[in-house]
What does this fold into?
Amino acid sequence: MFETLLEPFQYSFMIRAFIGTGIIAVVAAVVGTFVVLKGLAFMGDAIAHTTFTGIAFALLIGVNIYFGALVFALITALGVVFLTRVTKVKDDTALAILFTGVFALGIIILAALPGFAGDLNSLLLGSVMAIQSREIWLIIGVAVLIGIMMWVFFSRFVFAAFDPVGAEAAGFPVAFFQSLLLAAVAVAIVISIQAVGVILVVALLITPAATGSLVTKRIGPLMAVAAGNGLLSAFGGLYISYYLGAPPGATVVLVATALFAVTLVISKLYSGIKAFG
Amino acid sequence: MIARSRQPAIEVRDLKAGYDGRPVISSISWEVLDGTLAGIIGPNGGGKSTLLKALVGLVKPLNENAEIRLMGSAPGEVRGKVAYLSQAEEVDWSFPISVLDVVLQGRLISKRFWERFTPQDYELARQALTHLGISDLESAQIGSLSGGQRQRVFLARALAQGADIILLDEPATGLDAQAQHELASTFQKLRSEGRTIVVATHDFDCLIEHFDQVLALNGEVVAEGVPREVLTEDIMTKLFSRHFPTVQPTGEVMIHDV
It folds into this structure.
């Protein structure tokens, strides 16, 4: 049993996959907690889709793909803050038009790039086994940065999310902290693309945090449960994919979904038992 | 002992304000002395919320000659000393946050943006909860509280902030009569400690019983003064008549216009 558990670790690419995906899953779950609590799942998905175009654009002009993804993710995230504050746009339709248009542009750019078709799959669905050491360091750097940001600004993010009008009236810089949080979401999405790809990246943000919300009604413990859940999904998914030969990114997401479903059933049973005394 | 003369806490001169360039209120001039419990009444859409939001800078004046002074200063200079309690629908009550954590938010206002809570912040937050008689709710989730308790928590946050002026936008909405009177008694207590409290409200019983001053607003100032002078049939008709249909002797239903 123990040997079976350790078997994947004889390969350095698997060690990198476990470290990289584990950290990514924790970071995504932590920032994803705010995404779930504020009902921003759709925006998370929109940001993820626009990173696709950022990567395509980066390939077109010959710069680092993470840089391209980050620029497009930040433009979308901060653009949404601008749209909702300045033009009072609230309808998801505007966001949907924006991100599908940008995504379509990405597909056209990629189609124009000769010889890229082979990599499209890994971009859309992730290529966790191909994580390199330098990418691990990038992921660790982002994790440390977001960890420090959460440690210092956590109560401010909560204030801006809970009562933005009251906070702004007292002179609290609500727009700054909303933008900072969305920038963190954008960065988390960019580093998560390597693990699960553009299409499934929103699952790493949303599903572990949604599972956490079934377990506790306090934001601190919720974030901790979400992080633990993300880590469990990452490790469980990688193990299953290793032994079954399934696509790793999709398996990680499927494990996260299964954990959510199991937690949902248990929480419903628990409330039912409690209600009947 | 020399009695301190009361100073204007809120001064508004010729204010026109609204949204997207369209005025909701205009020609508003109003003064509230410190240590006053004042109410703002008027029909929905009459500008109560707009006036409160203009006082804290959430809505900008549409005219250049408008003047707003809070405790003798421009609103931007005394923001930490003014607390605005949002309408219930503007707050995310499902947010997983405890009462103590909400009250602690009042301490964030005066902090530099990288500073974290200190033991003194916790002490001040707990003092504020005790002052409002809800220290037993410290660990409760905000969403599990009644409407009256939620308002007390927000008042505790204003106390933890150190606010001298507290503005409340329809805090009595959804409260039963007893809860409304208990809340008004809390306002009186805070007023007696020297704070200025301004409440947008539809609760006329409490106005007469507890409040010092009333502003009747329907786009413009319809009347102002002590509650018994403002809450007259004449002024109420002027304020609300267009909103209440009446049946004419002929059987025809009329919507009055002022």
